Amino acid sequence: MHRLRTTVVRLWPLTAVQMAQSLSKPVPLAVKQGLRTSQPARHLNTPLASEPFLNGTSSNYVEEMYYTWLENPKSVHKSWDVFFRNASAGAPPGAAYQGPPHLSRTSERLSSAQALVGTQPSVEKLVEDHLAVHSLIRAYQVNCNHTENVLDAQKDIDTTSCPAPCLSSIYGLAESDLDKVFRLPTTTFIGGNESALPLREIIYRLERAYCQHIGVEFMFINDMEQCQWIRQKFETPGVMQCTLEEKRTLLARMIQSTRFEEFLQRKWSSEKRFGLEGCESLIPALKTIIDKSSQSGVESVIMGMPHRGRLNVLANVIRKELEQIFCQFDSKLEAADEGSGDVKYHLGMYHRRMNRVSDKYMTLSLVANPSHLEAVDPVVQGKTKAEQFYCGDTEGKRVMSILLHGDAAFAGQGIVYETFHLSDLPSYTTHGTIHVVVNNQIGFTTDPRVARSSPYPTDVARVVNAPIFHVNADNPEAVMYVCKVAAEWRNTFHKDVVVDLVCYRRNGHNEIDEPMFTQPLMYKRIKKQKGVLQKFVEKLIDEGVVTTQEYEVKIFLNLGQEGHPMHASCFFTLEGQPRSMTCPSTGISEQALSHIGNIAASVPVQDFAIHGGLSRILKGRANMVSQRLCDWALGEYMAFGSLLKEGIHVRLSGQDVERGTFSHRHHVLHDQNTDKRMCIPMNYISPDQAPYTVCNSSLSEYAVLGFELGFAMASPNALVLWEAQFGDFHNTAQCIIDQFISSGQAKWVRQNGIVLLLPHGMEGMGPEHSSARPERFLQMCNDDPDVFPLIVLTPKSLLRHPEVKSSFDDMLPGTHFRRLIPDNGHTATNPEKVKRLIFCTGKIYYELTRERKNRGMDEAIAVVRIEQLSPFPFDLVKEEADHYPNADLVWCQEEHKNHGYYDYVKPRISTTIGHTRPIW
Which range, of 25-34, 81-90, 531-540, 721-730, averages the lowest pLDDT? Predict the structure, then answer.
């Protein structure tokens, strides 16, 4: 792919002087720890004089001592400190040693450094040669060459490859050293059961491990155990060999993948399908991951992917019925409720089937996603988290996620970075995701050299210490092995891992696109490439794994009637049918209100020290409960608490939601004397209540809203809420709103119960910061009474407004949500005297009523609040308009005329009154 990374690490030199000069930065802690812990017997504070080099000082011991000295010079004996300091200052061989005065036993023995001249150089050479070999091994581990036999998009332009190790100029070794035997460090497994090897064999085994069809990036991981685990998987001799049965299974899967693409190409050659030609090994790769995960106990796999290869994945991995796939291409076939638009590349699928490798049932799910490529990543993570939560899978052993990516999008889309950063957060982790990158080495028509600044498209994964396995996708056996290791890594460490399938795209961006316009040299080479299946079959025939006749039989059996690949039956279901939005009574008993209110005003944990300011807040809540009143925060407590008491899970997520941005919520209490000791009173309402999840998110809107959308997807009966600190925060999350929420039902026949809380109005902080831009949401609505989701605008100025309180009477059994709140003042009893009827919503109501009172116009002006704008309450608005027959009709809002609600409500009010009265 790209030239060898030269900025990651400077290869470790040999002499102590060069080593000290080049390693200006500390040696990675994991390496130092590994070197130290590998020497069980010696003590680092042993004087140099008592360990003469001529008596066989271990090179590993000297190496360990040197790294320990680099970390902390005082951690070694003074004699070693002097030796390393002298060597670092440029002392010639033999002159670095200088005995400290307190160690001198006789003046003749340690009078000067010249006492060792003549004996030291050979010992230093021994130490330096061993360090050189260790440096050489590390160089291979750090700088893997995975471009061997891979079609490199840049090879015709930038000739870059991994140079052969230069033994003399870099390492100080010579050709004559190739047959010398060197002791291997504990940070390699190339020796197998041998602890020492000739240099020639060391280089050969390193080449086999790191410079063939697999390249491994892992040395940036700061965990010694994890690094050693990876080394063992790739360095142990013979570990990558496939069994005969594995090769035959792999062949069958390659045939399925390839023949599916060939059939679609023959049948619908002019249709866009974003086929998998050039990366057919993706199908056996995914199946290997699923097989290995099933053997480890995984019962459900949730996947997300872009359009390339999606049809093949649906058919051969998820097992969607072929008739449902082909009907997207053939006008003679009817699609059954498949949504609208370019859905053949974007629809999802759910299927439960037996895994033949593990003999266990598995549920496979591919989440529907839009053309906005990586937007599905956090949605998949949220859905995975929800399934783990509802089945009690606290460690991710039963439910897991797989995300597929294109190389250009993986490097270019910021949502990838945001999603990675959720991977280890307690309330968002899915305990490890396997990322598979289909690395075409091109983004539509854009070369990597102008598409990213990083050497590899996968470098973003390094921020969370995820190992990255590059593999030549033209080598199915290497692909299968890498995928087995990736699945084992996820099962062992429950952390993210990336598989980079370095491949090519045989056709253009789609099947009717001409790639020669922009990549002529690359596609001249592609036309000469043998197909992956053809090369693999030739290899297996040469090895005697299959015969030509057996292969032809497999090809024949893979075809069903009329050339359709044969599969077992499967089924297609919607992911949860939502209930109607018809709202029953929302009231609860007075006893329940008082109980929840008292919980909200208490600290239900003994010996828990709370902040003094919070004590006053809780006391204020208790006073309101005694007066049978609720402000905004307590009303929210009543709503959540009553749902929890009924067994309905509530999850509230977003930036700083635990306390509340404006310090009004305080759903999580913190002990003032003990770190990490917290209390969530909402979870103490009832012994058999549902759990309440409230979690501060990372400083992200796009990924977190996508995550919560995916979480809500798993259970339509749960209340899942995402709160933005300010109204404008949804600007950054607009992609999720546009691509998933507003279009979900029309495009993918999916409804979702996600609730968006946007706590801001026009609060004097500027139109870009204050406004929640309600006009955007209203433009998305279609006035269908069964529309989801719910958008709640909660201006912060109302959180503590003295008039913004509700009585318990408004919450008792028999009460309902009020779509419209009439004016219940003087105007209600004398409607004929009312000269103006003002419709409004939100906090502007309190400003209008205050001004009406100040001007003494209580009988002349009626103010009516429309609490539900969509679906529009035509019936109730008509009642109010008819109630005030002599009044002018006015709509009032804070926002500019082209912002807010005006353009939405005006035609609807006109329709309500039959266009007989003007509206201001």
Answer: 25-34
Q: For residue 895, how far is the Cα from the chain centroid?
A: 37
Which residue from 276, 284, 188 is spatially nearest to 235, judged by alpha carbons?
Answer: 188
How many CB atoms are closer than 10 A to CB 395? 9
Q: What is the DSSP string of 731-777?
A: GTTHHHIIIIITTHHHHHS-----EEEE---S-SS-HHHH---HHHH
Q: What pLDDT is attached to residue 55? A: 36
Q: How far apart (Å, rounded) are the C-alpha atoms in residues 66 and 443? A: 47
The token pair that represents 3 in the structure block: 């030239």
Please report, as a single letter, which amino acid is at residue 837.
L
For the sheet containing 692-696, what is the strand order?
692-696, 650-654, 719-723, 755-758, 790-793
Q: Which two tokens stand for residue 214?
A: 């697999």
pLDDT digits (tens, 9 = 90+) for 657-674: 999 988 999 999 999 999
Check residue 620 and report its DSSP letter: H
pLDDT at 265 over 90: no
User: What pLDDT band is residue 880 in, cutting at 50, 70 and 90?
Assistant: very high
What structural domains and CATH numbers belong to the chain? 1-212 (no CATH), 244-563 (3.40.50.970), 590-808 (3.40.50.12470), 818-912 (3.40.50.11610)
Q: Given pLDDT bands bounded at 50, 70 and 90, which one contains residue 784?
A: very low
The amino acid that residue 863 corresponds to is V
CA dihedral defined by 676, 680, 681, 687, rounded to 10 degrees? Answer: -110
Residue 454, number of CB atoms within 10 A of its CB: 13
Q: Cα–Cα distance between 590 and 642 in angstroms, integer?
A: 12
Q: 470: which strand partners?
A: 215, 500
Cβ neighbours for 124, distance < 8 A, ≥ 6 positions apart: 53, 93, 94
User: Residue 888: in which H helix or E strand, if any?
Assistant: strand 888-891
Residue 454's nearest CA partner among 410, 487, 489, 495 is 410
Distance between start and end Cα atoms, the chain? 65
Per residue in 164-200, pLDDT (tens digit) is 455 656 778 888 889 999 999 999 999 999 999 999 9
**Could you read off the pLDDT of 110-119 as tens digits, one per residue?**
344 344 444 4
* Cβ atoms within 10 Å, residue 45: 10
Q: What is the pLDDT of residues 540-557, one digit of tens each?
A: 999 999 999 888 877 766
Place of tokens 């309902």: 816
**Cα–Cα dist 64/880, whole Å:** 86
CB 32 within 8 A of CB 71: yes
| Element spanning 780, H or E | helix 774-780
| Cα(715)–Cα(691) distance, integer angstroms | 14
Which of 744, 763, 761 minimizes the C-alpha distance to 753? 744
3-state class (DSSP) for residue 101: helix
3-state secondary structure of 687: coil
Compute how many other C-beta atoms are within 10 angstroms of the C-beta atom of residue 809. 10
- Determine contact, residues 501/265, Cβ cutoff 8 Å: no
Tokens 């299974």 belong to residue: 249
Q: Of 839, 636, 869, give the one whose Cα is nearest residue 772.
A: 869
Q: What does DSSP assign to residue 564?
A: P
Asked if residues 133 and 178 have their Cβ atoms less than 8 Å apart, the reply is no
Asked if 425 and 496 count as a contact pair (C-beta separation under 8 A), the reply is no
Q: How far apart are CA 625 and CA 804, in angstroms?
A: 15
Q: Which residues, 6 or more positions from 94, have their beta carbon under 8 angstroms from its beta carbon?
A: 113, 116, 117, 118, 119, 120, 121, 124
